[in-house]
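EI: anyone free to look at a 405-residue chain?
SC: sure, send it
EI:
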Amino acid sequence: MSYPRFCQQAIRESLKDTPITIVIGARQTGKSTLVSSFSKSTFTFDDWATLHSAKADPEGFIQQALKNPWPVILDEIQHAPELFLSIKKAVDQNRQPGIFLLTGSANLLNWDQLPDSLAGRVEYINLYPLSLAEVIGHQTNWIDNLFKSDASNVFSPFSMALSLDQVEQMITKGGYPEAFRRDQLSRREAWYTSYVKTLIERDILTLDTVESLLSVHQLMTHLALSTGSLLNFTNLALKLQISLPTVRKYVHLLELLCLCYRLQPWHKNLGKRLIKTPKIYFNDTGILQHLVHLNPDTQRGILMENFIFNELQKQINWSQTKPQLYFWRTSNGREIDFILEDKQGRIVGIEVKASATVTSSDFSHLKALQQDIPEQFLTGYVVYKGDKLLTFGQHLYAVPVTWLF
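SC: here you go
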């Protein structure tokens, strides 16, 4: 079974006015399948013969590839960084839109081994694991509505038809298409075991040298245990008994592979956002459970928080507003799980509660932020597992998790 991918329209629009479009996402999120609908001129660097040809004669390879109908698809481009200079040269010689459509299982924007910048010639589009909206085939725009409507108009009537079981199933299975198709836990575990093995033993070595693959695996486990917590490199180095620079390097490599993400803190002072400690989240709840064997029945909070983080990322990806995603934390312990800030500086706060009940105390931190920035604060939500939209003060609402899709 195939699923609609809602970033497809963004790719289509990019090909109309941009010479190079690059679709970035973790391995096995469906990049190759997605881009294949745009062209039959495909060269994949998972194929050894194609890869060696590209490395041996980058310019000749690109010139030959351009004889095919455009866009020319170069799949898993991170395996052949030697091509980027030739791609840039070809585009500069013939500045037309829709020449190249590239995919990468590495975040090329942050990869310091790229030989040259493609600035002004490229658009990057993220492909995350499946969202629940893509699984059910119903694209929503509630992220945009958050910034232009009150709560009663934000959520689609379709959302109310979803069940909590559908959300729980998504959290348990995760959004990798192949894993999601497997109903048996043992078969999903087999898939995730193979997936992690490939990431560690092959893909990470494509990006940089690694002194100990075992340490990388242990680091992944410790990061999974720290999901939703502040990222403490010093503690990780002590636990793994490796140097601080090595820990920083390995975390960076896992981020390059789109396996995990840092969430930066929000602060009124823009400069202070850059020096505060970030949190860490994984790109998918399925792989998170696999790494540390989280039990959905006893560790609902961690899984639901990571799930909401993932869904916010995905829905921001196809929204028009494109708000920035942060968390909020003060020195006296006040904390809000997620902050959305649009280009006008308007703020929406989101707290996550893995319970079917909600009380006034669950809004205490949202109220504190509302009082702190009354001119910026639009709305605050506590996402919970109940079935009713409830008001808890001016612009403060409890919203069912099933209504977010």
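EI: The two ends are 20 Å apart (CA to CA).
SC: 👍
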